[in-house]
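Fill in residues.
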């Protein structure tokens, strides 16, 4: 049986481990975990290193630029969060690569908030995972977690294939594949995929200029 001392000193990464909530919180809030992403779901915890790989980080930046540009040009209120922790005490925690509050909830999280308490604040409208080495888990347990929580929309960015796998999640927690965002109406995911492909051959300024033309067409 894994002890709390073992969890806080030598925790296996990229693995779901059965653990009580208290063990997860001790690990998640420990100073040595400041470069780890933490998830807790159905009595299991998972920690991942925050990727420092060039491919992951470049796609991450391209997506953030793309979503922000589209929302700005369309006049859609939006506030994005990068690797933010969301917590429902005793039940669930997740830390997507990017997440967004959109529309009437855009300004709901006050400045100075560290971990977003889901007992006090609503869920983000959109969660995004950038999948370079974690595609199976992002399509599996994390998708189930986001569905159960009831996040409106979930995107998985497959770095290797320059593909966005997106799901709209209904109030009854069922999900369906989409090719156009429901929370950012008019945003076609094929445009973002083309931007990811272009970013392999050109700098982000050039990709952003191309995106602006597409979004204003």
């Amino acid at each position: 049986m894994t002890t709390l001392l073992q969890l806080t000193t030598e925790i296996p990464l990229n693995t779901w481990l059965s653990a009580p909530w208290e063990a997860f919180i001790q690990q998640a809030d420990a100073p040595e975990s400041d470069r780890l992403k933490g998830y807790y779901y159905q009595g299991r915890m998972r920690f991942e290193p925050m990727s420092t790989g060039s491919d992951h980080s470049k796609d991450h930046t391209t997506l953030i630029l793309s979503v922000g540009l589209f929302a700005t040009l369309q006049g859609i209120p939006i506030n994005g969060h990068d690797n933010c922790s969301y917590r429902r005490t005793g039940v669930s925690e997740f830390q997507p690569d990017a997440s967004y509050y959109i529309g009437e909830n855009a300004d709901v999280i006050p400045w100075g908030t560290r971990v977003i308490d889901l007992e006090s604040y609503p869920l983000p409208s959109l969660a995004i995972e950038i999948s370079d080495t974690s595609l199976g888990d992002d399509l599996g347990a994390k998708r189930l977690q986001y569905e159960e929580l009831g996040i409106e929309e979930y995107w998985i960015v497959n770095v290797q294939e320059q593909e966005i796998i997106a799901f709209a999640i209904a109030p009854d927690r069922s999900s369906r594949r989409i090719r156009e965002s429901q929370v950012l109406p008019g945003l076609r995911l094929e445009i973002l995929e083309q931007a990811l492909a272009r970013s392999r051959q050109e700098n982000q300024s050039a990709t952003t200029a191309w995106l602006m033309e597409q979004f204003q067409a």
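Residues 1-8 have pLDDT under 50 and may be disordered.
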